[in-house]
Design goal:
Strand content: 15-25%
Number of domains: 1
Number of helices: 11
Structural class: alpha/beta
Order of helices and strands: EEEHEEHEHHHEHEHEEHHHH
Distance between the termini: 43 Å
CATH topology: Rossmann fold
Strand order of the largest sheet: 6-7-8-3-9-10
CATH architecture: 3-Layer(aba) Sandwich
Length: 282
């Protein structure tokens, strides 16, 4: 499938009221449809501000700034139309629940879009099945685990069929098993529904799963590329208060011990397979 630009920031500035420095400075970025982008940076780097700008919760403070979402220029007049294309999964799923049951919660977004009851009855079971929560349709959200709550939040977004899904630290409160389950579901939905994923995260191992990584520092984009390209810049990441993902730390240590690791190896699975093969050949 041919990819097209779905998000474009052009010279985007934003300064909070009474703040001395901009939270985002002259930000230019372009994201293609159907890709996964990880947005990383230390606390206060501007990640959350970019998330709010994407969904029209904030607007640029520079009149020359332009944000394009799914072919629409984001303005106060178009914000509600733009939001039909964007869904956000927040850090704490409890902040998103409004329904008495799981099914009621998924229905909320559909009701806001004026979807017919017949169509709601078709979509709700379908999206709950997609995220492995079909058996919990009548459950109360407060009885669910953190991972289950995030899966319901994802189902609520999938139900309204956005083109873009933003994960705003969506896995940071989950245990490793819950984190893996949520990431696996999102990866599957990205391919199945041609979703564009933006992951705003402190977890650099999660960022390593993305198609591209953007590094923000003091509101400016300081690095942009594939995970392999960005995580080779260890000094730059360290100056920005970020540590390398475990895989790259391990790879660096192995190479320091004299084990030559090809640059084409970019995942733990590939590294394990290479080391096993290397051991067989010794």
């Amino acid at each position: 499938m041919e990819q097209k630009d779905i998000i474009k920031f052009s010279q985007v500035d934003f300064t909070y009221p009474e703040a001395e420095q901009p939270a985002v400075k002259a930000l230019n970025l372009t994201l293609q449809a159907g890709t996964w982008t990880a947005l990383i940076g230390h606390n206060g780097s501007g990640k959350s501000t970019v998330s709010k700008l994407l969904d029209g919760l904030l607007f640029p403070t520079n009149s020359d700034s332009q944000i394009m979402i799914a072919g629409l220029q984001l303005t106060p007049e178009t914000v509600w139309e733009v939001r039909k294309h964007v869904g956000i999964v927040f850090q704490n799923p409890d902040h998103q629940f409004v329904g008495a049951t799981v099914a009621d919660d998924v229905a909320f977004g559909l009701e806001n879009q004026g979807i017919s009851r017949a169509e709601m009855q078709r979509r709700i079971p379908a999206v709950l099945a997609q995220v492995g929560m079909a058996d919990y349709a009548d459950a109360e959200p407060n009885h669910l685990s953190g991972g289950q709550k995030q899966r319901v939040a994802i189902a609520g977004i999938l139900a309204v069929k956005p083109q873009i899904m933003i994960l705003d630290e969506a896995t940071s409160m989950l245990d490793p098993e819950g984190r893996k389950m949520v990431i696996d579901i999102v990866k599957k939905m990205m391919v199945q529904d041609h979703l564009t994923i933006i992951s705003i995260t402190h977890d650099l191992d999660e960022a390593n799963l993305a198609d591209q990584v953007l590094v923000l520092d003091d509101g400016q984009l300081i690095a942009n590329g594939t995970p392999a390209e960005v995580f080779q810049k260890a000094d730059l990441l360290e100056r920005s208060g970020l540590a390398l993902p475990f895989f790259y730390q391990l790879k660096s240590e192995l190479m320091a011990q004299g084990i030559n690791i090809p640059t084409t190896i970019t995942t733990e699975t590939e590294l394990v397979a290479y080391l096993c093969q290397l051991n067989l050949n010794m």
